[in-house]
């Protein structure tokens, strides 16, 4: 089943094929157009943005940008799933976020990327030079406000992640995670109601939630046994009892 259908004529840079410059037509077809940073822009403003953007594609398990590299580009996920992570000084990995269509990364950086971004599935991306984007902010007031909104949202998500790791038990963490991914899938409308697309591995989920793989697998099994979720069609998870899932997530 193609859950993340490509909507852009993109090429794979890894195979030395040319990239394709964005156009107003391709932007209109973008699955995240209504929810992403571009949602604040009118057609003529989108044209200004598309003039400095290119569409690229990456196969699964490829690095898009690495922690410490110069932060030259801002990326918009058009299709697929991206993993954002940091390496700790002792060699452990902390996954910061999973990104889906409509999500941006590379915006809140200093001189270098403070995380690594890797593809979990085949991914289509819109890539924009950060310096050029900063210039466009001056030209398009609505764009500036939308970027501020995105920045505030990222800060709120960081606070939620701290709560998740600091106060919730294993079952509460997993239920919160499932509800978050469900909400993000529904936002762009590529999943049926109460279905969650989980292309990431159990190890990825464990590194996001601060748990072991065994604990994550055990909690999935418990939720399925209690008829709260169904794990019949990987990578799909179906929510059977969303009220109970919400109750557990909230610590009830």
Quick gist of this model?
The protein is an alpha+beta fold and 252 residues long. The protein has helices at residues 24-29, 43-50, 130-139, 141-167, 170-188, 202-209, 213-225, 242-249; strands at 20-21, 54-58, 63-65, 73-79, 82-87, 93-99, 104-105, 116-119, 123-129, 195-197, 229-230, 236-239.
Provide structural commentary.
This protein folds into two domains: 13-163, Jelly Rolls; 168-249, Winged helix-like DNA-binding domain superfamily/Winged helix DNA-binding domain (Arc Repressor Mutant, subunit A, Orthogonal Bundle), CATH 1.10.10.10. It has helices at 24-29, 43-50, 130-139, 141-167, 170-188, 202-209, 213-225, 242-249; strands at 20-21, 54-58, 63-65, 73-79, 82-87, 93-99, 104-105, 116-119, 123-129, 195-197, 229-230, 236-239. The chain is built from eight helices and twelve strands. The radius of gyration is 19 Å and the shape is globular. A hairpin with a 5-residue loop joins β11 and β12 (236-239). By secondary structure, the chain is of the alpha+beta class.
Observed structural traits:
five-stranded antiparallel sheet; Jelly Rolls; 2 domains; globular; 252 residues; four-stranded antiparallel sheet; alpha+beta; 12 strands; 39% helix; 8 helices; disordered N terminus; Arc Repressor Mutant, subunit A
């Amino acid at each position: 089943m193609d859950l993340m259908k490509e909507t852009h004529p993109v090429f794979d840079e890894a195979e030395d094929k040319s990239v394709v410059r964005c156009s107003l037509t391709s932007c209109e077809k973008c699955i995240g157009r209504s929810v992403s940073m571009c949602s604040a822009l009118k057609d003529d403003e989108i044209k200004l943005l598309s003039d400095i953007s290119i569409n690229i594609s990456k196969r699964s398990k490829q690095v898009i940008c690495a922690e410490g590299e110069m932060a030259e580009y801002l990326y918009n996920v058009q299709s697929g799933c991206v993993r954002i992570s940091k390496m700790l000084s002792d060699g452990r990995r902390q996954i910061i976020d999973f990104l889906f269509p409509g999500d941006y990364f590379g915006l809140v950086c200093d001189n270098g990327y403070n995380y690594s971004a890797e593809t979990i599935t085949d991914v289509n991306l819109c890539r924009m030079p950060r310096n050029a984007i900063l210039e466009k902010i001056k030209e398009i007031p609505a764009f500036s406000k939308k970027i501020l909104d995105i920045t505030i949202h990222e800060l709120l998500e960081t606070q939620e992640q701290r709560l998740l790791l600091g106060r919730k038990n294993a079952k509460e963490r997993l239920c919160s995670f499932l509800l978050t991914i469900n909400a993000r899938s529904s936002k762009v409308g590529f999943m049926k109601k109460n279905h969650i697309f989980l292309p990431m591995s159990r190890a990825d989920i464990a590194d996001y939630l601060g748990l072991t793989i065994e604990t994550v697998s055990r909690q999935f099994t418990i939720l399925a046994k209690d008829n709260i979720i169904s794990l019949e069609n990987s990578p799909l998870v179906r929510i059977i009892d969303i009220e109970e899932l919400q109750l557990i997530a909230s610590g009830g």
